[in-house]
């Protein structure tokens, strides 16, 4: 292909030979002698001789010589559709490409010319629309400023936070359309109106009792109403809204995780950054603003720091002896045992706090004591999640991992702590809830409501009542002992990401019992964005050791996926007894009151369908459908594995071509230097 392109180039540029500084003899020299001496050609010749392609190559060369006066009618190269400024070639080559495109346009008919022009115009319009929409992305300039000063790792936290805001906005639209709207519109007058009572107080907004308990925040507000068809009623719409939230969240999170993992696999493990390219070609010469120039300096500096950190660790790890490796593995085993012991103690502390909070004797205390007892489990969980991750961070520093691996190990241990503590708390709430309670779903929703409120309050007060005063002390009295002990503040990415994952998991788990939790989540996330921005820009200093944000971004979404699975497990665990105990645990409030469950409502809808539809649904839910489903999954996975292997082989070939291209460039530079030296000797 390269040989044919060079022949076309010689033919099309022959008319401009008077302008070019190269004569026809020199062009022929470069196309014969130097071309044959290129390392890529030398490496490809033995392979061609082995496969017996020499005769076909000569025959193809003769056919190309016979058809040199005709324009090729074969498939166009992809580079023919790219703008000339994006083509990796010199000015003379771009002139030749321009002439070839003119000949192609003159040779095609009117319809082809019009179609090509319209395709080019559509691409330009799409690019302009894309640029305009990218300017409307919220907090775009803020993220660029944070990346320039603190690196891509801190920026990935804020990008992840913005993604959660988008996700909760989608949840609010689904819940408003499926649950809140129909329940308000079809609500009958026989239910008591929503108004304040004399017993209501401001504490209800923190405890989820009183007026908040009767409002549309919780499960008990949503009744069956006047919309009472077999397959179109409020209970089915309620289920459709909840399952839509979970299903779409699963699709979006899985897609984000797989795309990020593919990017990490291609660029994280198999990508070697060219330092010379980063230094000499990484600058954007269109920058004119001094602030943007400073940010670009920060980008390049942080990338180089990350690269040097990874190279230093790889060199140190390669020089370890066998004894050092054995001692290191033993140390890691001991540290993991200590981690498990700390997790066990934390789980027992959460159990004790839950048992203390749910006791009936707590109702006769003062309002402040009662408030503290109600928030005793959230306070305990927050305390455990605040202290133990710092201990895990110290433990990972002794395990002699790279800085990126230390961050990921701390993230894995801390997310296990947060999800396991939340799971244990939910289990104790399920098992200790009274069976004769008026509305058990509201009681469980109140626990999730309190967890969300307290998590937001903890984030807010930790910044403005701990981090900011600490920064003021360091600025006012920099030589004091308190300033030296506290040290400089740095934005700890694992702990802040864990807070986001924890709050989103609480929102998913409690959305069935508290449908307006996504609304509360949006408000808290937006406020958290500005609070964390103030904390980063005002109170923190850049981290001395950088880590690669791509792999950690994949881990962020994988932790979200674990939280989503925990939500599904919680709903299944809570509704499984309803099916097995024949209404003994049926709800006394909400859309599934009067001995109704989600299984009886969906069963009644299925029975009202036509006979073919019932038969199809029974077949899809039976064991007989499992075999064709498994076969389809096997075929689907086999096709993807085959594509992956083919893409991997193509990637390896492209990598070899890049290596040979670099060898050709070095060879041509040497030849050019030799010619210059010979010319200087003649002069």
From TrEMBL:
<keyword id="KW-0812">Transmembrane</keyword>
<feature type="transmembrane region" description="Helical">
    <location>
        <begin position="329"/>
        <end position="354"/>
    </location>
</feature>
<dbReference type="InterPro" id="IPR038900">
    <property type="entry name" value="TMC"/>
</dbReference>
<dbReference type="GO" id="GO:0005886">
    <property type="term" value="C:plasma membrane"/>
</dbReference>
<dbReference type="GO" id="GO:0008381">
    <property type="term" value="F:mechanosensitive monoatomic ion channel activity"/>
</dbReference>
<feature type="transmembrane region" description="Helical">
    <location>
        <begin position="510"/>
        <end position="531"/>
    </location>
</feature>
<feature type="transmembrane region" description="Helical">
    <location>
        <begin position="451"/>
        <end position="468"/>
    </location>
</feature>
<protein>
    <recommendedName>
        <fullName>Transmembrane channel-like protein</fullName>
    </recommendedName>
</protein>
<keyword id="KW-0472">Membrane</keyword>
<feature type="transmembrane region" description="Helical">
    <location>
        <begin position="235"/>
        <end position="254"/>
    </location>
</feature>
<comment type="similarity">
    <text>Belongs to the TMC family.</text>
</comment>
<keyword id="KW-1133">Transmembrane helix</keyword>
<feature type="region of interest" description="Disordered">
    <location>
        <begin position="46"/>
        <end position="85"/>
    </location>
</feature>
<dbReference type="InterPro" id="IPR012496">
    <property type="entry name" value="TMC_dom"/>
</dbReference>
<feature type="domain" description="TMC">
    <location>
        <begin position="439"/>
        <end position="550"/>
    </location>
</feature>
<feature type="transmembrane region" description="Helical">
    <location>
        <begin position="552"/>
        <end position="573"/>
    </location>
</feature>
<feature type="transmembrane region" description="Helical">
    <location>
        <begin position="366"/>
        <end position="391"/>
    </location>
</feature>
<feature type="transmembrane region" description="Helical">
    <location>
        <begin position="411"/>
        <end position="430"/>
    </location>
</feature>
<dbReference type="Pfam" id="PF07810">
    <property type="entry name" value="TMC"/>
</dbReference>
<feature type="transmembrane region" description="Helical">
    <location>
        <begin position="624"/>
        <end position="641"/>
    </location>
</feature>
<feature type="transmembrane region" description="Helical">
    <location>
        <begin position="163"/>
        <end position="185"/>
    </location>
</feature>
<feature type="transmembrane region" description="Helical">
    <location>
        <begin position="205"/>
        <end position="223"/>
    </location>
</feature>
């Amino acid at each position: 292909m390269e040989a044919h392109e060079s022949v076309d180039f010689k033919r099309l540029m022959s008319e401009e030979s008077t302008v070019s500084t190269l004569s026809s003899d020199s062009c022929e020299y470069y196309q014969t002698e130097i071309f044959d001496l290129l390392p890529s050609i030398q490496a490809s010749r033995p392979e061609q001789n082995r496969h017996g392609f020499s005769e076909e190559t000569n025959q193809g060369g003769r056919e190309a010589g016979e058809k040199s006066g005709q324009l090729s009618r074969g498939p166009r190269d992809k580079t023919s559709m790219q703008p000339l400024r994006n083509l990796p070639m010199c000015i003379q080559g771009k002139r030749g490409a321009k002439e070839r495109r003119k000949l192609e346009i003159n040779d095609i008919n009117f319809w082809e010319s019009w179609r090509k022009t319209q395709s080019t115009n559509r691409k330009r319009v799409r690019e302009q629309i894309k640029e305009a929409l990218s300017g409307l992305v919220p907090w775009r300039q803020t993220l660029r400023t944070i990346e320039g000063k603190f690196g891509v790792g801190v920026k990935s936290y804020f990008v992840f936070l913005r993604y959660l805001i988008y996700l909760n906005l989608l949840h609010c639209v689904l819940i408003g359309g499926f649950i809140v709207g129909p329940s308000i519109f079809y609500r009958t007058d026989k239910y008591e109106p929503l108004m304040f009572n004399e017993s209501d107080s401001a504490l209800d907004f923190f405890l989820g009792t009183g007026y908040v308990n009767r409002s549309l925040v919780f499960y008990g507000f949503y009744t069956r109403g006047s919309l009472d068809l077999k397959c179109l009623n409020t209970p089915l719409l309620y289920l459709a809204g909840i399952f839509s939230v979970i299903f779409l969240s699963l699709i979006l999170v899985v897609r984000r995780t797989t795309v990020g993992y593919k990017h990490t696999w291609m660029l994280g493990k198999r990508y070697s950054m060219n330092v010379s390219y980063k230094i000499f070609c990484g600058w954007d010469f269109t920058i004119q603003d001094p602030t943007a120039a400073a940010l670009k300096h920060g980008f390049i500096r942080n990338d180089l720091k990350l690269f040097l950190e990874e190279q230093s660790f790889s060199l140190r790890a390669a020089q370890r002896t066998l004894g050092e490796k054995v001692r290191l593995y033993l140390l890691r085993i001991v540290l993991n045992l200590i981690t498990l012991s700390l997790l066990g103690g934390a789980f027992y502390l959460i159990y004790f706090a839950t048992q203390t909070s749910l006791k009936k004797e707590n109702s006769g205390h003062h309002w402040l004591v009662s408030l503290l007892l109600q928030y005793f489990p959230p306070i305990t969980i927050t305390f455990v999640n605040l202290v133990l991750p710092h201990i895990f961070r110290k433990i990972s520093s002794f395990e002699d991992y790279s800085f990126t691996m230390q961050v990921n190990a701390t993230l894995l241990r801390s997310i296990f702590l947060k999800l396991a503590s939340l799971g244990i708390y939910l289990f104790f709430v399920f098992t200790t809830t009274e069976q004769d309670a008026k509305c058990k779903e509201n009681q469980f929703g109140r626990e999730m409501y309190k967890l969300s409120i307290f998590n937001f309050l903890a984030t807010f007060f930790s910044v403005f009542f701990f981090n900011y005063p600490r920064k003021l002390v360091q600025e006012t009295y920099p030589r004091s002992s308190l300033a030296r002990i506290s040290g400089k503040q740095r934005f700890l990415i694992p702990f802040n990401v864990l807070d986001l994952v924890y709050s989103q998991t609480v929102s998913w788990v409690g959305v069935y019992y508290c449908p307006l939790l996504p609304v509360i989540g949006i408000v808290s996330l937006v406020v958290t964005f500005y609070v964390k921005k103030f904390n980063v820009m005002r109170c923190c200093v850049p981290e001395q050791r950088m880590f690669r944000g791509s792999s950690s971004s994949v881990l962020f979404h994988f932790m979200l996926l674990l939280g989503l699975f925990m939500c599904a497990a919680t709903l299944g665990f809570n509704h499984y007894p309803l099916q097995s105990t024949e209404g003994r645990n049926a709800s006394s409030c909400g859309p599934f009151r009067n001995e109704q469950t989600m299984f009886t409502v969906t069963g009644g809808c299925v029975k009202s369908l036509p006979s073919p539809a019932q038969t199809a649904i029974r077949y899809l839910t039976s064991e007989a459908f499992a075999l064709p489903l498994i076969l389809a999954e096997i075929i689907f996975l086999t096709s993807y594995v085959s594509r992956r292997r083919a893409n991997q082989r193509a990637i390896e070939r492209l990598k070899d071509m890049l290596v040979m291209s670099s060898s050709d460039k070095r060879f041509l530079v040497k030849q050019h230097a030799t010619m210059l030296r010979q010319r200087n000797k003649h002069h």
